[in-house]
């Protein structure tokens, strides 16, 4: 079955504030979508709603295919060397070609460094390596370019393009511009409540 992600008539309330309402989107296999907007408009909230981690105030989400989320929380043991921390998930995820992600993200030489010592950009690349190893069709990326230099940003854009070219879906929340295949953008301010 092909990947699909559909959100219908979503409203989001945080605390006492309605952030946005009437937001719908539909992504099919191969689609990428840039979720844009200023700080605090609700980009992360939308990503968390799509991931099933936050209940929408109104509306419904339906998905076909597994989802993988990258946000500011790094789901890797900070006390383990990077190679071992990734290895833990590789075994759980049944990943057979773990070296590929380390290569693609230029992490090979950091294998023996404890995760807590990695720089911001290195941690972001480690999170992407874990996502690649999971081989899930729907990627939800919250500010994936934060902390990355220009070369690493271009690598992320290339990885997303590759993922979509092979039938994946990518929804990317970013306050900065990002080159995604198809160039579709959803601006949260357009749905301000
Ligand atoms: N648990 C919460 N209770 C109340 N308000 C919250 C809660 N979580 C977030 N907010 C508020 O909801 C708004 C949207 O937050 P969100 O993190 O989704 O914005 P964002 O567009 O991703 O911002 P940024 O670009 O700064 O990451 C913010 O004003 C934030 O303060």
Automatic annotation (TrEMBL):
It comes from Qipengyuania aurantiaca. One of its GO terms (molecular function) is ATP binding. Residues 5-190 form the ABC transporter domain. Signal peptide: none annotated. NCBIfam families: ccmA (TIGR01189). The gene is ccmA. It comes from the Bacteria. InterPro entries: AAA+_ATPase, ABC_transporter-like_ATP-bd, ABC_transptr_haem_export_CcmA, P-loop_NTPase. Keywords: ATP-binding, Cytochrome c-type biogenesis, Membrane, Nucleotide-binding, Translocase, Transport. Pfam families: ABC_tran. This is Heme ABC exporter ATP-binding protein CcmA.
